[in-house]
Design a protein that fits this description.
about 45% helix; single chain; alpha+beta; 3 helices; three-stranded antiparallel sheet
Amino acid sequence: MIDTKLMSRREAAYYLGVAPQTLAVWACTQRYHLPLIKIGRHVKYRQSDLDAFIKRNTFGREVLQ
C-alpha cells in the first residue's frame, strides 16, 4: 500500500529542511515538481511525494561510513 500520510506545509518544510515560505514560493512559481493537495484553503503534502522529491534531487554517491 502506498504511504498516504498527509503533512501540513509546516511539517513538509521541516521534513525537507526548508522554510514553509519556500514551499509556498515553489508552488506559486512551479519551480519544482512537488505535488500538493488543496483541502479548502489548506495545503497538504503526501510523505511519499516528499520522499520521491528527495530521491529525484539526490546527486552523487552516498558517503560510506
